[in-house]
Amino acid sequence: MVFGEPDDQIVCRVLINEEEQYSLWFASGAVPRGWRAVKEGTKAECRQYVSEVWTDMRPLSLRKHMAGLPKER
Fold first, then answer.
1. How far apart are CA 48 and CA 71, in angstroms?
2. What H or E segment, with its residue span, contains residue 15?
3. In this structure, what are the phi and psi dihedrals at residue 58, rounded to the nearest 5 degrees?
4. Domains contained in the chain, CATH given
5. What is the rounded distance in angstroms from the CA atom of residue 7 to the CA atom of residue 2?
6. Is 72 helix (H, G, I), strand (E, B) or coil?
7. Helix/strand/coil percent split, the chain, to 5
8. Hey, how many other C-beta atoms are within 10 angstroms of the C-beta on 57?
9. Could you give the CA distance from residue 5 to residue 58 in angstroms, rounded to a whole number?
10. H helices of 14-68, where?
11. How far, in Å, CA of 2 to CA of 73, rounded?
12. Cβ distance 13 to 40 under 8 Å?
């Protein structure tokens, strides 16, 4: 991001990959392969969005694996 510029003046995109991991990118840049845009807005808005939706930092494949394991007694 741009240093010294207020978060409400930087336009970003929130990207998500196949493992449901999130990243912030400049809106003017190309979306990298393997990622897709899910939101665009100011840096502050995008950071808020990520903090609300990315509540489990584990990659999707790990969450699926852990869900399939037997419960300990």
1. 34
2. strand 11-17
3. -70, 140
4. 11-68 (3.90.820.10)
5. 9
6. coil
7. 25, 25, 45
8. 10
9. 31
10. 43-53, 60-68
11. 51
12. yes
The span from the CA of 31 to the CA of 61, in Å, is 22
How do residues 22-33 score in pLDDT, each as one tens digit?
999 999 999 999
Query: Does residue 18 surpass a pLDDT of 70?
Result: yes
The answer to whether the CB of 36 falls within 8 A of the CB of 15 is yes
What strand order describes the sheet that includes 22-26?
22-26, 11-17, 35-42
Residues 40-57: pLDDT tens digits?
A: 999 999 999 999 999 999
Here the tokens at position 49 are 């969005």
Q: How far apart are CA 37 and CA 33, in angstroms?
A: 11
> Which one, of 65, 21, 30, lies nearest residue 13 by Cα?
30
